[in-house]
Each structure stands twice: as C-alpha cells, then as structure tokens.
Amino acid sequence: MERMTRAEPLIELDGVSKWFGAFQVLRGVNLRVAEGERIVICGPSGSGKSTLIRCINRLEEHQEGRVVFAGRELGADTTDLAQVRREIGMVFQEFNLFPHLTVLENCMLGPTRVLGMTPADARGRAMEFLDRVRIPEQAGKHPGQLSGGQQQRAAIARSLCMRPRVMLFDEPTSALDPVMIKEVLDVMNDLAQSGMTMIVVTHEMGFARTVADRVAYMDEGSIIECLPPDRFFANPADDRTKRFLSQILSH
Amino acid sequence: MIPGSKRGRLGWIDAAVLAAVATAVVAVGYRVDSVLEYRWDWSAIPNSLYRWDQEAGRWVPNLLMQGFFTTIRLAVLSMIPAALFGAVFGVLRTTGRLFPRLLSRTYVELIRNIPPLVFIFIFYFFISSQIMPILGVEDLVRGASPPTLRSLELVFGPAALIPNVISGVLCLAMFQGAYMTEIVRAGIQSIPKTQTEAGLSIGLSRWELWRRVILPQALRRVIPPLAGQFITLVKDSSILSLISIQELTFLAMETAVSTTRVFEVWITVAGLYFCLCSLLSLAFDRLEKSAVAART
Predict the structure, then answer these.
(1) Which of A167, A215, B22, B75 has the CA that lies 20 to 30 A from A249?
(2) Could you tell me where the DSSP H helices lie in chain A?
(3) DSSP 8-class letter at A9
(4) Torsion angles phi and psi, residue A167, rounded to 5
(5) What is the pTM of this model?
(6) Mutate which: A57, A107, A109, vs B, most B CBs within 10 A
(7) pLDDT for B249-282, tens place per residue?
C-alpha cells in the first residue's frame, strides 16, 4: 500500500462530474489508480459505474473536474485522443467485435492501422494473444459463429493486441451464462497475474475478493468507499454498502 | 401437414387462382380483340430495331435499338454520379456538424418533394444554359482528335448527341442521388454506436473507423435497397424523353408515330425495358449472395 500511494498514479480522477441533461450521473468522483493496480467497481445499476470508466478513455465527456492519464489531462482540447486511447484497452458488456471481420482480423485491425505493424507481425501478435485467451482455433471464424464467452475472450485479445497500459472492463460477464462467465474470469485472472493495470466494473464478488487490490462501491454517482477487499467485505463503513453486499452476496 | 411438403405441389387454392388468372387473361384478350378492332401488324418492328444499311452493306441499329443503347448508356453513366451523390450526401447527413447536415437535408427534401418531371424541366434548363457551357462539352467534342472522339463515342454514343446525353445523365443522377442519399443514411445509421466506440477504443482515427468498420458494414446492408433504386433509375430514365434526350422512350414515340404501329412499338419497348431491368436485378441478386457468402 505504501508503494502505491507514493508512486505517480497512472490514472487520476479529480472531482469528476457529469450530467446527462438535467440528471447528474457523476458527482465529483475522486479515484487514483497506480500502475499495476487492480480496481473493482461495484454498485447498483444506474450508479454511474460504466459512465465513470468510459470517462477514462473519453468515450464519455466529463463536464467538471480532471481526468488525467499518464500525466496528461484529457479534455475538450485533447486533439490526439486516438493516441491516448490506443494505450487504454476497453472490454464491453456486449463484446462489440466487428462482425464483418474474422476474429484474427479483429485483432489485427488496431496493430496494422494504428500501430503501423506489418500484417505478418500483427498476425503473430494476434495469434499470441488469442493463444493467451485460449481460442487460437477460432481465429479464422467470424464473431457470429462464436459463443458469448469466446466472443468476449476475442474482444479481450483484440484490446491486448494494442499492448495497452491499462485495461478497462465494463461489466464483461453480464451478458454471459455461468459456464462462459468462468471462461472469461479465468482469462481476466491470468491477466491480473501478469501485472496488468485493470479497472473492472462487475458484480462478480468472487473475482473482486481474489483479484482486486481495492474494491470501490458506487451509488448515485459517487464512490461511497474504496477499500482493500478484506476490509471491504468484512467491515464496510457505510450502510448503503452493507445493504448492497447483503443483497448481492445472498445469491 | 409436414412443413416443406407444401413446396412445389399445387393445392386446390393454387389451381383455382391459376384458373381465375387464365380466364381473366383470355377475357381481356377477347375484349381487346373484339372491341378495339385493332389489326395487329408486327412487320414494322424488326425493321425499327435493326435496318439494312445499303451503303455500308451491313445491319445497323435503327431508332429503337439506338434508343435502347442510349438508355443503357444513360443508366450506366448516371449510376456512377448518382451513387457518388448518394454516398457523399448520405455520409454528410450522419455527421455531427450542422452545415453539412443542413446542406444534404435541403438537397434531399428539395428533390423528394418535387415531382421528378417538374424537377427535370427546371434543372435541365439550368444545366443546358449554365452548366454545359461551363463544362465546355460542345467545344471539347468539336475540337477532339479522331482517337479521343472514338473513345468518347464509345462511352457517350454518337458525337452529335454527347451534350444531350451528358445533360440527361446529370439530371438523372441529381434526382436519383437524393433517394440514394436516404438509403445510405439509413444504412450508416443502422450500424450500432457500439461499433464506433469499439473502434475508437482501440485507437482508430475517424477516417480508419469509417473505412474499416462503419462503411464495410453499412455497404453490405444497403446493397438490396440500392439495387432496387438502380433499377428504378433505369426505368425513370424514360422521363428524360420529355427533355428530348434521345433514349428509348423518346425514340419509341417517334417510331410509333412514323410506323403508326402504336401498340406493337410500345409492347416491344416494354419488353426491352423488362429485359434490361430483370438482367440488372439478377446481377444484383448474385452480388448480394456473394456479399452474404463472404460474411460467413
């Protein structure tokens, strides 16, 4: 813990607020994530979890506060957003693979078109990561021919092919059935073992307990508390967190 | 009943419908024959398709076939700018910026809310008096060297009619482009926003996102409606007869008058249009199937 607080954070959210029309989704959120740290964000639906991590790669624009990635503040005047986004991997709830491309082509698109790699190099890198998410045999198929779990792992491989400095996961297992959830969580576990910085929005409390360095609980657009998992689960300070945990852990 | 066993076998309803249709056809034919007192004479038709040229000593296309070829030229030539208008304005309609969106919206609404005929009358005047002199088409044709003229004729038909054909192409492309704009817009907007987000999140530039993610998917979705619009374009090219573009319908009117065989000529012309359009829809069918095949 000492090491983390002292190190320069990779991601810093400082009083971030955002409104959708008159509705305030984020209320002055503060969060610092150090390199190599693994954060799990949980909370009821509509609490702003997804919006929060989408602000980190600016898929959503915040209106107040500061979002800083690797020492650079992201705002309306950031002209080379693509430059920043290539270093931030993102995995979506609905996978969002490109349906007109094969799994391999999905993984090669970024490396060839953004990083300027040769197709041969990109293919090599794509196969390496497809191997790591354990679906090398699906490389030639189109996303529509894969199971949900396989699609999500392909999506993870697609992001990893950019060699990002951080991976954001937006409810990666919410659209999956239990068997597939395990496949995806196994891959995410491996990724955590490899030292990847991760911010994961999920309700998988087992994952939070074993993998997370800190677990954040969000409600009504604020981070209510953000604690190491042993303290978070054993002894949360806030009543809302307690109520949420009792609901979610009962089944 | 086992599903599938219905296919290819005639039930009694099918038989009844067939009988009713056959009866109706015969009845109409009988009525036409007895009431109209029209003496059918198809002998003038072959000659108005092709005639024997004494001087050249070979068969050459006569008015109807000349018109047919001009119609094909018009259709093929205007498809390119029409698709271009459709693509450009269709993309503009989906951008976030107000001015391009307003511009293409105006274009689409202006053309969709004016009858094609009226639009063409107005626009043709504008083209022939303003645009053609600017393009300098007539001077170009007049000053062209024999080899250039030959290649021009290959594309646009007889030299004397080149300005005529180009005006027709511009008119047709302009008003068909508006309909294609709407098709392209719908195609682009049918691609979910999540695809854009996925593309941006791996760091694709706006251009690469369009080129690699949005357009390939949108294009596949617009092939069927676009094919329909191309066929409509071929048929609508007959409107150009009213601004004296010498295409199939225009020359059919002349032929009908000069041969006095009105029905025979128009039925022949209908057959020619039918052949052209059904060939096109066959071709588009193939294209669509191969696009679907490429996907899986």
Answers:
(1) A167
(2) 2-6, 49-56, 81-85, 103-113, 119-132, 148-160, 178-193, 205-211, 229-234, 239-249
(3) P
(4) -115, 125
(5) 0.79
(6) A109
(7) 999 999 999 998 888 899 999 999 999 999 999 9
